[in-house]
Design goal:
38% helix; 16% strand; 282 residues; single chain; 9-stranded mixed sheet; 9 strands
């Protein structure tokens, strides 16, 4: 089985529609794909309705969190999307995205970047985020690539035009995910290219609080980092996952570029009580 447990659609900051994403997953030879848009489940119904025969969809979301002042992401799998406490927090996280993005656009304009809020909103077919602002900067010729926008010069963490966001305490995120019957996996925990990361002891504290797993095989983890995370997962009794973090044409990663072992996937499914995977009819 080829299992990719982290992918994004136009419901957040990907460039493939939810239906297009599952078709692309089948074309890439995947057996299982998780749709994990940022702080939203808006694309799940469309993805499920468009499932190609034999492809399994894992409903999920990627939740914006903070731990000891460090921003991080928590992958939530197979939770009940209607459970009120977790649904309310996702609403708060999404509602903060628009004023935050507007404030960053205003800061960028003050720095001389010729971009507009109207264009950023057009680029964001779903939930607006920094990648859409970065794309607008590329279009305007301010930077050469989306990655070039995520620097101290522009909208990187602590950058000149960066604006903070509402983030959920990571321990509370684990509690809410479990309360909705889901499974919690720490996304790309050692992605140092994105900014500050938490130390191993912080991951140990999350594990003690019920964290289910950590994303090990990821494009932002080099070989040594993956070996270190694999060992940490064993020491802490955590599941180790792998995934592409696919965003369509917005990033260079391909669906199925990194995958999750069947045993880890089966453990996630076995632990979940809020929802189950959906498989396209043959």
């Amino acid at each position: 089985m080829r299992i990719d447990l982290h992918a994004h659609s136009t419901a957040s900051d990907g460039t493939d529609s939810p239906a297009g994403l599952v078709r692309a997953a089948a074309d890439a030879g995947l057996d299982v794909v998780a749709l994990t848009d940022h702080d939203t489940v808006a694309g799940l119904a469309e993805a499920a309705a468009a499932l190609p025969p034999g492809l399994t969809l894992v409903p999920g979301a990627e939740i914006s969190c903070v731990l000891d002042g460090v921003s991080l992401h928590m992958l939530a799998y197979l939770f009940d999307p209607e459970e009120p406490a977790f649904a309310r927090e996702r609403d708060l996280l999404r509602d903060d995205r628009v004023p935050r993005a507007q404030a960053m656009v205003e800061r960028l304009r003050g720095l001389g970047a010729p971009i507009t809020w109207e264009r950023v909103r057009e680029l964001a077919q779903g939930s607006v985020g920094r990648p859409h602002i970065a794309q607008a900067l590329v279009e305007a010729g301010v930077v050469a690539t989306v990655s070039d926008a995520f620097t101290p010069e522009w909208i990187g963490d602590s950058g000149r035009a960066h604006v903070g966001k509402h983030e959920l305490d990571a321990f509370e995120a684990v509690r809410l995910i479990h309360g909705a019957g889901g499974v919690a996996v720490f996304a790309h925990p050692m992605a140092v290219s994105r900014g500050r990361v938490v130390p191993d002891d912080a991951i140990a504290r999350l594990a003690a609080a019920g964290l289910d797993g950590i994303e090990v095989d990821h494009m932002d983890h080099d070989t040594d980092t993956r070996l270190r995370l694999d060992a940490l997962a064993v020491d802490l009794g955590l599941l180790a996952t792998g995934s592409s973090d696919y965003h369509g044409s917005r990033k260079t990663c391909r669906l199925g570029e990194h995958t999750t072992a069947p045993a880890a996937y089966e453990a996630i499914v076995a632990r979940a009580t809020g929802a189950g995977p959906v498989t396209g009819a043959r």
